[in-house]
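wait is this the right file?? whatever heres the structure
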């Protein structure tokens, strides 16, 4: 299967590549990405039905850099009750909060599998103690793919030194330094907002998440 293959709406129905991978027990997921928030609820619902039809491992929705959509996120949370696969939403710490607030209990698998949802019980994971960093092919280290701020380079520094001593990571981890609406939000400790989206929109890593609707 071609890495990172982009399927059209009709090609999502094709099972060839998925069946080949499943035959050798390779987990498969489908990623729904809406650029510039062009995906409407009807499109998301259509793709989720297709994901269930081809029986992939889980369904990943990538929210745009500009923000999540409260209506779509609410619909996805409710859809998880009867969906036989975990639904994950990237770049949206508000999604697991919505799932937990609504006490969503999946009918087809253990609720423990919901912990596979990004940001579950920890919020934005970029550079966080229970989170991750990203190493690019040239060795540059950034907090995550959405937060394109160079922390160092593994060809020049030990990655452990970057992880432990980066001033940028120390700042990101101090959620008491959050600004804007994220600073005043009741979910600050559990969420923290998407730092990549905040930086993309304002140039300030600690700014409020412009794509969030929660308080």
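ok assuming it is, sequence goes like this
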């Amino acid at each position: 299967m071609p890495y990172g293959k982009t399927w059209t709406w009709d090609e999502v129905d094709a099972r060839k590549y998925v069946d080949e991978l499943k035959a050798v027990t390779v987990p498969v997921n489908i990623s729904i990405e809406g650029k510039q928030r062009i995906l409407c609820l009807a499109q998301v619902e259509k793709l989720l039905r297709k994901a269930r039809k081809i029986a992939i491992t889980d369904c990943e929705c990538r929210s745009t850099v500009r923000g999540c959509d409260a209506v779509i996120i609410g619909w996805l949370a409710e859809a998880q009750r009867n969906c036989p696969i975990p639904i994950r939403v990237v770049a949206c710490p508000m999604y697991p909060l919505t799932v937990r607030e609504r006490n969503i209990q999946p009918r087809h698998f253990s609720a423990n599998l919901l912990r596979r949802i990004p940001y579950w019980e920890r919020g934005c994971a970029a550079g966080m103690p229970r989170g991750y960093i990203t190493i690019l092919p040239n060795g540059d280290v950034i907090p995550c793919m959405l937060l394109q701020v160079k922390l160092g380079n593994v060809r020049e520094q030990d990655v452990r030194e970057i992880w432990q001593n980066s001033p940028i990571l120390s700042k990101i981890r101090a959620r008491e330094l959050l600004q804007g609406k994220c600073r005043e939000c009741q979910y600050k400790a559990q969420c923290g907002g998407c730092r990549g989206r905040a930086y993309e929109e304002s140039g300030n890593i600690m700014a409020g998440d412009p794509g969030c609707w929660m308080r």
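Residues 34-38 have pLDDT under 50 and may be disordered. so i think its the right one actually
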